[in-house]
Amino acid sequence: MMKKVARIQSIKACFTALFILANISIAETNIIKTEYYDSVLELSIDNIQNYLCKIGVKKEHISIITSQVILETGWLQSEVCLDYNNLCGLYNTSKSDFYNFNTWQESLDIYYTNIYLKYNDTICYYEFLENWGYAEDSLYISKLKSVCNNLKQTV
Asked: How far apart are alpha carbons 133 and 129 in whole angstroms?
């Protein structure tokens, strides 16, 4: 984790130096501002929830997907999370390994486009995940509901 923090601080310093040399204010350009802030966002539950909202996840599903992240990463501590930036346990069967993402936001973007956008409101999101076959664990949905209920109580 310390390596990741040092890398983030290094990226922040590089961007700051670049903006100073180019005499550009971060606030002057939305493209740079978005890329800058998105690339250095600290991995936290709050930032995950804010990012899910930003990319278009409905409010009622944010706590469910955040709970999935918590289950898949062991509260953001797993090797797959820290080394692969993979928050959702997305697995590449052709390579027999987990997908490796450049940023944790990218893993949520992939989850959003490849899983979340397949959902329709005719069934509840838990049922959708179960029907989708999201997890191999037969108790996954009950574990997910438990984490989600605890998360809602702490927020």
From this structure: 6
CB atoms closer than 10 angstroms to residue 69: 24
Structural domain harbouring 24: 2-40
Structural tokens at position 23: 């005499």
**Do 82 and 96 sit in the same domain of this protein?**
yes
Give 38's contacts (C-beta < 8 A, 6+ positions apart).
103, 105
**pLDDT digit string (tens) for 103-124?**
999 999 999 999 999 999 999 9
Nearest to 40 by CA among 78, 64, 8: 8
What's the pTM?
0.73
Nearest to 39 by CA among 71, 64, 62, 7: 7
Asked whether residue 83 falls in the same domain as residue 60, the answer is yes
Give the Cα separation of 8 and 14 in Å (integer).
10
Residue located via tokens 């590449």: 92
* pLDDT given for residue 89 in this prediction: 94
| Number of independent structural domains in the chain | 2
